[in-house]
Each structure stands twice: as C-alpha cells, then as structure tokens.
Amino acid sequence: MIVFSGTKSTALAWEVSKQLKCPAGKTDIRKFPDGEIYVRVETEVAGKECAVIQSTRSSDDFMEIIFLMDALRDAGATQIHLMAPYLGYMRQDKVFKEGEALSAKTILKTLHELADSISTINCHFLNSGGETVFNSVNFMNLDAIPTIVDYMRKDLKNPVVIAPDKGSLTYAKAASEMLGCQFNHLEKTRISGEEVSVEDKKLNVNKKDVLMIDDIISTGGTIIEASKIIRKYRPASINVACVHGLFLSGVKQFQGVVDRIVSTNTIESPISKISVARIIADDLRR
Ligand code: R5P
Q1: Cα dist. 130→119, 124, 138, 143, 149 in Å?
Q2: pLDDT of residue 194
Q3: Residue 225, ligand 1, Cβ within 6 A
Q4: Burial of 213: CB neighbours in 10 Å, binned 0-12, 13-18, 19+
Q5: What is the mean pLDDT of residues 20-47?
Q6: Which of 112-126, 135-149, 184-198 is predicted least confidently?
Q7: What share of the chain in percent tops pLDDT 70?
Q8: What string of H, E and C letters represents the secondary structure of 214-252?
Q9: pTM (predicted TM-score)
Q10: Residue 219 Cβ contacting ligand 1 at under 6 Å
Q11: Rounded CA separation 225/188 (Å)
Q12: How far is CA 203 from CA 173, 197, 211, 242, in A?
C-alpha cells in the first residue's frame, strides 16, 4: 500500500506510513493565484493499493482529496481507501426545514463515487463506532475515546467524568466504565453558532479530578461554560479532552478556566498530543 495525504494531515499520514511500513506517496498540491487547487500525483501507482489520509475541516480540504483520489484512479491505482480522520459537514444529517441541503449525505455520496472504502473517526452524528450505512453509503466510524481515556488516566487520581451536554453522554459513560468511576452530565442550550448556555446543576465533584470529553471543540463555548459550573463545586482539577480540536477561538481562552486541555491529532494544533495513528493503521490493515 502507498499512503498519500492532503496538505492538512501530512504529519499524521507520515506516522501511519511508518506504522504500516508502507511508502508515503509524493504529490504536488498547491493553489493557483485565484484560489483554485492544483493536484499532481508524483509516485507511480499503477496496479497499487493506495490510502488517502486527510481531515476535511474546510471546503478546500474536500477539493484536495476529490482531485487526489481521481488522479490516483486515472494513474491506475487498483484500490483507494479514504481515511478522513475528521470528516467535516457531518453536522447536518437531518433536514430540519424543507429545502435544506443534507450536507452529510452529499459529502458521503461524493466521496463514495471516488473511494473504494471510507473511514472516519468519531463522526459527529454517530454515537458508536463500527460499520455504518448512511443514505446507502457504507463507511467505517472509528472510536478514539478509548485512546483518549488511556492517555488521560495517569493524571486522574480520583476521577469523575462529566459530559458537558447530553450529546456527549455516550462518551462520558464509556470513559467512566474504563476509569471505574461515576459520570454525570450537564444541560446545554445552544443560543447561536458562537454562544451556548449551560444550566447550573449540583455536581458531586468536590476534590475530584473531573474529566470532560467531547467529540468536537469548535468555538470552545461549551467547555468554558461547563467548566464555570463545575468549578463552583470545587473539583481538584478539570481535565478536558476532545477528538477533533477545531479551536476556532484559539486555545489561550482555556487558561485559568481548565487545568488541562488536549485533543487528538485528527486536526493538528499545538495541543493535539494524542495520536490516532495506531487507530488508522489498524483500520487500514483490515
Ligand atoms: C455538539 O454537538 C458537539 O458535541 C460539541 O459540544 C460542539 O461542537 C462544541 O461546540 P463549541 O466548542 O462551539 O461550543
């Protein structure tokens, strides 16, 4: 297998290629002055199986993998396995108002046209890992929560897991089972894309090391508002981890609010300390 990546997941793809003991494919990916994307495959792929690794947090990231997969096919690749560690546009998996575009379906259908298999990690609209079929598209949803809990556990002497909202309750329950501790959840109301409010609720966290896990941290509003409530009940520490750290407002805003915050490297950032390379390599070996 030859491991290719788009421009957003080069370090992760390199790590995966080392684990698989497979060569990393060479590409030339750049932008024209008008913003259009140019992709060229520079490695011979005729008759070869290829993996394409790229998180897609922007529309340009999608264009890169669409061009890359089609170029690999044109160059004679036999099998193309797409691994999108963070797969964007998965927030809209339902039509709430008549006429809305179902972005999750459109993206998956488009990728399915070009890839022989599709995998992602903690897809936003799913609560559990495994093979999934969504609007007739098969894909694999991998779960990074056990890897996150293993990384966090050494700093949690007296742990308790708190879900910042009901949406992350499944993750909190799974983490509490791994840590052998209690879990609870807060109630969040989303006011707008940037603003949330979290209801005050008495929590049994006094002198405990709180672990909060979410699939995505976007603006950071959810974690900050939840931490303010948790802090009232005097925990020993507040530790936060997420799978996909978008950190749209940066990471400085968490200083003094939480004691520790990390993410996986599905999206690379200064705090993406937890590697998902092993999870991806194991999936590609299948
Ligand atoms: C919500 O459904 C997600 O699990 C996260 O809680 C949400 O994406 C976090 O967004 P933000 O960081 O902007 O509050």
Answers
A1: 10, 14, 11, 8, 19
A2: 86
A3: no
A4: buried
A5: 98
A6: 184-198
A7: 100
A8: EEEECCCHHHHHHHHHHHHCCCCEEEEEEEEECCCCCCH
A9: 0.96
A10: yes
A11: 9
A12: 16, 17, 13, 21
CA distance 104 to 88: 8
Q: Cα of 24 to ligand 1 centre, how many Å?
A: 34
Catalytic residue among 109, 188, 201, 228: 188
**Is the distance from the beta carbon of residue 196 to the nearest atom of ligand 1 less than 6 Å?**
yes
Report pLDDT digits (tens) over 160-208: 999 999 999 999 999 999 999 999 999 999 999 889 999 999 999 999 9
Instruction: Give the phi and the psi of residue 171 in degrees, each rounded to 5.
Output: -65, -40
pLDDT at 266 over 90: yes
pLDDT at position 193 is 86
pLDDT at site 238 = 98
Active site residue 188: yes
Smallest CA separation from ligand 1 atom 1, residue = 167
Question: 221 C-alpha to center of ligand 1: Å?
Answer: 8
Residue nearest to atom 5 of ligand 1 (CA): 216
Cα-to-centroid distance, 26 and ligand 1 (Å): 35
- Phi, psi of 51, rounded to the nearest 5 degrees: -115, 140
226 Cβ closer than 6 Å to some ligand 1 atom: no
pLDDT confidence band for 148 (50 / 70 / 90): very high
What distance in angstroms lies between residue 260's CA and the mean position of ligand 1's atoms?
A: 18
